[in-house]
Queue: 2 jobs
Job 1
Amino acid sequence: MARLDGKVAFITGAARGMGRAHAVRLAQEGADIVITDLARDETGVDYTQGTPEELAETAGLVEAAGRQVLARVADVRDLSALEAVAAEAEEKFGRIDILVSNAGISNQSPVLELTDEQWQQILSVNLVGAWHAVKAVVPGMVKNGGGSVVIISSTAGLVGAPNQAHYTASKHGLQGLMGTIANELGKSNIRVNTVNPGMVNTEMAMNQRLLKAYVPDVEEPTLEDVQRVFGGISLLPAAWVEPEDISNAVLWLASDEARYVTGIAIPVDAGLLARF
């Protein structure tokens, strides 16, 4: 018996990267999947983003794992859009048991050069978007007697990250959101936790501008240059982790194996934060 047999998971930001990995991993363990994504490039972000075709490709991978899927384009900043997808999902599947609030964006700027537009954009997607996902999905969980909310945060939600004051603030905000709703929703048998990735092998983390921030002495840094830097500051011999490593933590939190786990942050960072 798979760990998520009979469950339905709602995942935001699932056209590619970590969101896609979460969708596939949870489907492999028996869950039917609801996926959303903005599915277009966002102005002011340093990397290309998911497309409708990639969202459809994620849906195809879920189906290839033998599970049903509902895929919709939706912006997490639009509460009504997420509520509409949640209502459609509940009509199709009868319930939603798992929320993976994964959608997020990043860009880099020294704090004194950071614009109000950059600040508002990152906070509205990363923090307000997670709040909207909770507002749209969790009422159904309360009605159905329980569930698991997994918020994808960051190691930047637990420490400061240079040149990313807005991103870091949004991720620290997610920690506060998680802790508060874990306290409020425990009586409804709903568990709420964060997974806090370090460097992950996705376009969001491995784009040229972010790599340059980590390796400023190299004109056009490569993954090998970043490996040289990050490989020396983690406890384990890994400069980054793969999306599937994050998804395995998400799977555990979503499953009954973590039925008494709530209100915690799980860093998946090869020991970066634990290093003395």
Note: Helices lie at 17-28, 52-64, 79-93, 116-144, 165-185, 208-214, 223-230, 243-254.
Job 2
Amino acid sequence: MLIEKSCKEFIDILASASPVPGGGGASALVGALGTALGSMVGNLTLGKKKYECYQDDIKRILEKAGILQTELSDLIAKDAEVFEPLSKAYGLPKNTEEELAIRNEIMEKALRDASSVPLEIMKKALEAIDLHEELAVKGTKIAVSDVGVGVLFCKSALMGASLNVFINTKLMKDREYALKINQETEKMLEAGIKKADEIYAQVEAAIKS
């Protein structure tokens, strides 16, 4: 399991010529790290009298963040799993019409599977950004900078994963399906980037004021 590697091992594998992990897995990891930073802020806020009115919210945020961290961590391995069939499909013979038809059918399924995981990474990153929006207000002010870093990581996960969606939909023969996925991706990008930038600006203003 890639997630069980040490930081150094993961970075070394990522830097190698190995096709996995790649941008999708790295995006999932960055998203998990960003969410973990949000959890840290929540844990630093938990039990503090100054933030007594937010304690129930902080507990809910921590529970949700823990789930997201696990889901994003699992998506690192899942991204590698779905890429393998796609990499094999590229090597299938296409010398005859029959071979080409078989190759196209296998490729189409592999491309759909390969785009489904980064799409899921984006959804989880969006949920994590929402948690940071709350933490920017309800979290302890001594760790507000970590909210800013965390939301930047989640934004990076969102944007990075989107590129893995687009590179797969570009090759799909079913253009109607590709367009549907692209529109869903663009919608998440627009909403997530806007919100993440607003949260970051709020954190930056709080630090500099």
Note: The chain has a mean pLDDT of 95.
